[in-house]
Amino acid sequence: MSIAGRYQPLEDPPAAAAPFRARDLATAQTVLLRPVRRLKPAEVVPALERARRAQGIFHPSLITLFDAFEDALAPLVLAYEYVPARTLKVVAGGQPFHPRRAGEIGAEIADAAAELHGRGLAHGAIDGDTVLITAKGKAKLDRLADPSLEGTSAASETGDVAALGRLLMELLTGRRGATAALLGSDAVSSVARRIAAGELDSAALIAATLRRR
Asked: Is the pLDDT of residue 183 over 80?
């Protein structure tokens, strides 16, 4: 059995819209196939177009989207780089990170967002569920162009910048939806406050400021 004549599943495709590993027969790479089943017919073509614009962007802090296609498996299937990792939400377990570590993660994800913005794209759903932490501690932004994520259809650079600020607050406080009032007096908290105040208005500027802290 192959999918789209190219992908050999390495595990049984799940009944629900859960990702599964497959072998790309054209490159011999292991990829992660993510079926997107809950799409209305009118949403399929726009979702495919968005995904194809985002294909093949390589950045050390971004999970690469290799392919996007329609299939009997689902109206849209996204083929991503396979990287063993856990979501930031799982790694954190509701606990705050040390400010230095929070700044490292924030800078890596801001770098990935800046790469997208430089190409006229935006992620639209940067949070603890779409940021992965690898076994070596590297932060990577996942699920680029996944229309099943809330906000991706209206993704914008401004929205991503605001999401980076919220991500920093979550890293520093251990709470999703935390406000600036909960932040400490460290340099990374200061960056989060400046994002919330609109003083840092680009992902590239956020990454550079975090690295200078």
From this structure: yes
